Amino acid sequence: MSDYPRVSLANPGNRIQDMGRRARIPSGLTTSHSLIGVNRARPRDGLSRPCRVGMACMLALLFWAGCGPEKPESPSTPTPPPSAQDRAELTLLLTGQALSTLKPCGCSEDQLGGLSRRQAILNMIAPDRRLVIDTGGLLAADSEQDRIKLEVFFQALTILDYDLVHLDPEDYDVARQRGLVQAVLFDWITSAPLAGPDPQLRRWSRTLDLAGREVRVVVAAMRADAMTPRGLAEVFGPESAGPRLHVVITPDEPPVEPGVVSQWSGVDLVIRPAAANEPQVLHDGVAGPWVIAVGRLGEYIARVGVRWGADNRPVFQFKEVAVDERLPEDPLLVELYENYKLRVKEERLIDRMPQLPLPDNLEYVGSGTCKSCHEYEYERWATKKHARAYRTLVEINQQYDPECIACHVVGFGYVSGFRNENSPTDLRDVGCEVCHGPGSAHVASQLAGGPYVAPGRPRLGCIDCHTPEHSVGYAGHEEEYLRKIVHWREQKSP
Predict the structure, then answer these.
(1) Cα–Cα distance measured from residue 364 to residue 437, given in angstroms and rounded to the nearest whole number
(2) SS3 for 335?
(3) Distances (CA, A) of 469 to 140, 223, 333, 475
(4) What would the pLDDT profile of 44-60 be if each residue is shown by its tens digit?
(5) How far, in Å, CA of 290 to CA of 262, rounded?
(6) Sheet of strand 314-322, all strands in order from the earlier edge strand to the far edge
(7) What pLDDT digit, counting tens, does each position of 277-319 carry?
(8) Separation CA 403–CA 107 (nearest Å)
(9) Using an 8 Å Cβ cutoff, are 2 and 458 in contact?
(10) In what order do the strands lie in the sheet with 213-221?
(11) What are the chain's domains?
(12) Which of 71, 197, 251, 256 is the most buried (most CB within 10 A)?
């Protein structure tokens, strides 16, 4: 194990790469940034979609005051008239585990995800035959940037007309401390212990009219250890004769044994959002309820079709729908993201990132210093895309984003490394010391004519930045990618 400090460059602020999340330490929200909305107790069915979207626009204007022009109307994609059979079917459109991802980074093609592209998928189903639910996991870390993102998520979910949002313990804790749960325009439930025993915070219900047939839908947020026969009976009540749909959202990640699933009586569908990277059926309901995962990072929407047979029991059809980059974007959500970028800049988050000291008093010297002795390598490097990495951020106004900048400059997060746009220009781009390490001791030894001293550490490998999320085509094509950056003298064959 290396004995020098490391900064997670793909996700500075130590945002995690895997399914787990560390505890958050949320901070308060200043009055000037408070969200303004209606009391959650107001019946949601009393607000039409245009009214809710209009209120969301007003909310966004108030929240992002001075951050941009008046927002355009959200586009609507016309849906074909449903058949009689379609009118009798309900479609659940499920998202979750966004983990602070508002949209893909854009560093490679064929990336999936993005809040602004969800509307195109949601509009494929008529509003009166669908329920749109987010199953939790909005945040991934505890930084100020993540807290700002939670406010953006809340506005986006309102604009997208979500029927219900599950706030898992981490999301609820941040939202509560920032005063967001009192102002939201969507219905929500939570599995957070801090919410207390109030059943109205853990259970949501609605009666739907599907082709003249009334269907009672109940969604509950529960931990797996609470899903005992008694606990489920308290939530869902006695068995009813009519068609129903009982859903449980549980934030637990450990695998659940089939024998345990069979004991979940009275439940039709269990959603375990964090159980898999992509949407999938974890248990097919042969003995017990269906159990599914919804995927992560907003790359897919899980689509669950529900029909009711003669016995009034639900029958499911499952499909994953990719949030593909070819889908049209909602201009209202595009504008919301642009205002988010402006907020990140105005908050100067990049200047507030901690800088770790390098071991042995090392310092970064910049690629220009390396050129004096390694001119051939420098000139070759200057023709590669690595030498234009910072410019690609400037072109899309992302150079102020701590989560983006780390893989486009030298030494971000370390003393003497890149700090902001006022840093020396030869610390920009994926320069020499990103891969070879800080060069102060190496340069000093060469200038003094002393024994050779190699550049120090940390030294990054390709996979530190070319993660599956940021570089879709890298895995399995490592040699091909490496050939693109060759800037050294190749060894001649004997």
Answers:
(1) 8
(2) helix
(3) 14, 29, 21, 11
(4) 444 555 555 555 555 55
(5) 10
(6) 187-190, 164-167, 130-134, 90-95, 300-308, 314-322
(7) 999 999 988 888 999 999 999 999 999 999 998 889 999 999 9
(8) 13
(9) yes
(10) 203-210, 213-221, 244-249, 269-271, 290-294, 279-284
(11) 31-339 (3.60.21.10), 356-483 (1.10.1130.10)
(12) 251
Q: Are 12 and 412 in contact (CB under 8 A)?
A: yes
Q: Give the 3-state secondary structure of residue 290.
A: strand
pLDDT at 3: 40
For the record, the structure tokens of 153 come out as 């998520």
Q: For residues 151 and 63, what is the distance between their CA atoms, to the nearest angstrom?
A: 9
In this structure, what DSSP letter does residue 322 have? E
Question: Cα separation of 36 and 49, whole Å?
Answer: 18
Closest CA to 123 of 186, 161, 79, 159: 79
Q: Which residues, 6 or more positions from 130, have their beta carbon under 8 angstroms from its beta carbon?
A: 90, 91, 92, 93, 122
Measure the CA–CA gap between 474 and 472, rounded to whole angstroms: 6
Q: Choose among 294, 292, 289, 261: nearest CA to 279.
A: 294
